[in-house]
Amino acid sequence: MKKKLFRFIAIILILLAVLPIVNIITMVQEKSLSLKKERLFNVDSVLTLIGFAGYRLGLSTDPGEVMVGRNGWLFMGNNFSRSLQYKIEGIKESDMPVVEAIDKTIVAWDSWFKDNGVQNFKIMISPDKDSIYSEELPSWDKHYNVQFRDVIQQKQPDIYVDIYGSLLQKKSDQHLLYYKTDTHWNSYGAWVGFTTLMASLKNPQINAVVSRIDASSFSFNPSIGGDLARFLRIGSYNTDIRSDINNINITNNYTFVLDEKSGAIKMLGNYLQVPSPSSPVWVSAVNHYQNSKVLWLRDSFGSAMSPYMMRMFKDVIMVHYNEVTPEQVKSLVKKYNVDYVFVTVVERDAMSKFFTTLP
Fold first, then answer.
1. Number of domains comprising the chain
2. What angle do CA 91, 94, 98 make, to 5 degrees?
3. Using an 8 Å Cβ cutoff, are 248 and 307 in contact?
4. Do both 171 and 317 map to the same domain?
């Protein structure tokens, strides 16, 4: 480790030494006539090179945001919800009051939903990338063997959908489920999560639909670096692997995304990936398998899953779980006579405010 650090420092010093020359060349290429002193020593031009050098040496220029793992993998640092600290420490006795508060809240919501005609209420915790690919973490990052998701899921197994085992099983097939340089899972990982969620509904018609698609429906192709690579300013120097679904049962589906309140069109087209909405959107697809109506409280992990959800159900109301009040949730359920309520939450946010807010 010391040798890597010394090499990294040497690279930084060399790059800083040639910094004025690099900036002069850049200004000449830009045909800039004013060789200002502050531009000569502007470090922006070498930050990417420093970031890439550190990445190749296994060192991060911003470890609070991004950790450099093994074999080119990048992971979120502790600045995001203190997830690194929580994973290493594991669930503690001092966390149990929060666990009990969450359990009480979920039971209360389940009761309210049932009283208001909802057929099924399901919560799916999407594992952080480091929970699935822990072998690619830095050697010092050892996760405790009992995590929050394990404890909370065991309390309400009929509500929580455990996809951890499903992802580990599919991981053994050698197809990537998550991006190496991004915080999110890819389309194939999202499909594994979606099929596990659908299986929990125990609906024969839904199960028949999802059984038509497997890993052979996906192709895996090179792509540019993801959000973690961009944090280190090395996105353009980095490559990743994306998964593309090639099955017309999913891709052939014209979809409308409307603002739920105003009705204004936000998106429309075939095979849409809908970003996490900060306010409710109503999504309706031309081709759908089920006439059921869904309220889906989600985050950015839902983007890759959204084409599957929209292909399955006629009407899907989406909003981020932390951007909606209990009154809004209840209003949407009653307004649309919702059949299913799904909450899909990334593991690091599974203790956020929604899960301790009673109906």
1. 2
2. 80
3. no
4. yes
pLDDT at 128: 95
* Residues 54 and 118 reside in one and the same domain: no
How much is the pLDDT for 174?
81
| Packed helices 2-17 and 44-56: angle between N→C axes, nearest 10 degrees | 160
Amino acid identity of residue 55, one-letter, is Y
Per DSSP, what are the bridge partners of residue 307? none
CA-CA distances (angstroms) from residue 288 to 96, 174, 266, 312? 42, 31, 20, 5
Which of 16, 40, 59 lies at the terminal end of a domain, its last residue? 59
The model's pLDDT over 2-61, given as tens digits with 9 standing for 90+, comes to 666 666 566 566 655 655 666 666 655 555 545 555 565 565 666 777 777 778 888 888
Q: Are 177 and 189 in contact (CB under 8 A)?
A: yes
Report the distance separating Cα 78 and Cα 101, nearest Å.
24
Same domain for 205 and 248, yes or no, is: yes
For residue 30, the model assigns a pLDDT of 57
50: phi > 0 → left, psi -120 to 50 → alpha, else beta; which? alpha
Residue of 154, 122, 81, 170 lying closest to 339 (CA atoms):
122
Which domain range does residue 306 map to?
93-225+233-356
Give the residue ranges of the chain where pLDDT is below 70. 1-46, 81
| Alpha-carbon separation of residue 177 from 171, 186, 193, 238, 251 (angstroms) | 7, 6, 10, 18, 19
* Domain shared by 196 and 151, yes or no: yes
- Whole-number pLDDT of residue 144: 87
Are 266 and 192 in the same domain?
A: yes
